[in-house]
Amino acid sequence: MTKVKSLADLKKMQEDLQAKLKVRERGTDPEGYVRIKVAMATCGIASGAKGVMEFLIDELDKRNIDTLITQTGCMGYCYAEPTIEVTLPNKEPVVFGYVDIRKADEIIEKYIKNGEFVEGIIPVNYESIDNN
Questions:
Q1: 3 state DSSP class of 44
Q2: What's CA 131's distance to the chain center, in Å?
Q3: What pTM did the predictor assign?
Q4: Cβ(30)–Cβ(62) under 8 Å?
């Protein structure tokens, strides 16, 4: 546990805990938020997915865009890592490949904020399994 040495340390700890609580609250009703999954299997991490995820977390928070960001394992697009899946409210998921910081910024500005498609969409190579 971190030692609290000043009022600033205590306020920082409070902000961090509130941010974690906010993420947990979003998880109970995720359909109302932009949802982003970052592929963090070995190939994704080796290609820079960790940096992309950190960028997305920081930038979406700075831009006040309510987002639920999670990491996932392999999505099957090893050739196009880093990959992210973005689901806008009431829309189908879209997978983007070769996502670096520049591409992540473009996805935020064009796709997430304005609904405009950007280059780099990967056609879905899987289907949902329905147990009906």
A1: helix
A2: 28
A3: 0.73
A4: no
At 106-127, the pLDDT tens digits run 999 999 999 999 998 887 655 5
Please tell me the CATH code under which domain 32-122 is placed.
3.40.30.10
Q: Does residue 73 sit in helix, strand or coil? A: coil
Tell me the two tokens of residue 52: 């992309």
How far, in Å, CA of 45 to CA of 115, rounded? Answer: 28
Structure tokens given for 85: 């899946």
Q: How far apart are the first and last CA of the chain?
A: 48
Q: Enter the DSSP assignment of 31.
A: G
- The Cα 32–Cα 46 span in angstroms is 32
- Nearest Cα neighbor of 120 from 128, 104, 109 is 104
If DSSP codes are grouped into helix, strand and coil, which group holds residue 56?
A: helix
Domain ranges of the chain: 32-122
